[in-house]
Amino acid sequence: MFPSVSKIMAHIYRVDCGWLEILMGKSMDEAMEATVTIETDAENRSLEELEIMYDDLSVRFRTCIREHVDLEQRVVLDNPYAGILNTKYSEFIIQVVNHGTYHRGNLSAILRQLGYSSVMTEYGLFMYQEHLN
Q1: Do 89 and 74 meet the contact criterion of CB atoms below 8 Å apart?
Q2: In whole angstroms, what is the distance from residue 87 CA to residue 103 CA?
Q3: How many Å apart are CA 88 and CA 71, to the nearest integer?
């Protein structure tokens, strides 16, 4: 478990940035190198600044996904922690979603431990909010 909310948010942001780099064609090593300073920078941002950074990242993801030549194209991912995986670009999107979901659960647990009520993290709520905006 992460020791603070800011560390969780920074971690999710860095990993999401890394997966975007991979989705855009970089190797995992290149993506990890490209995002090495992002986590520390994000930890030092205010919640408002992080929200802007996440909004920008979501725009970059949407653009990349919309303009990607073939999300079902096979690609070899060389993960230094897990080894070689023959997969598809579309699988990276599922990984980003699941990784964020996992850590939002961490955030909810921390908030409850601090005496705050949990926040709704369901995708269905997001869909309704997007529809109302």
Answers
A1: no
A2: 24
A3: 7
Structure token digits, residue 96: 């980003």
| Residue 111, SS3 per DSSP | helix
Q: Which of 133, 28, 9 is nearest to 80 (CA)?
A: 28
Contact 119/108 with Cβ under 8 angstroms? Answer: yes
The domain made up of 5-132 has a fold known as Four Helix Bundle (Hemerythrin (Met), subunit A) (1.20.120)
What six digits make up the tokens of 112?
A: 């409850």
Residue with tokens 């948010």: 9
- pLDDT, tens digit (0-9, with 9 covering 90-100), for 105-126: 888 888 888 898 877 777 788 7
| Residue 64 contacts residue 20 (beta carbons within 8 Å) | yes
Q: How many degrees, rounded to 5, is the angle at CA 41 between CA 36 and CA 47?
A: 135
**CA 122 – CA 20 distance, rounded (Å):** 22
Encode pLDDT of 31-71 as tens digits.
999 998 999 999 999 989 999 999 999 999 999 999 999 99
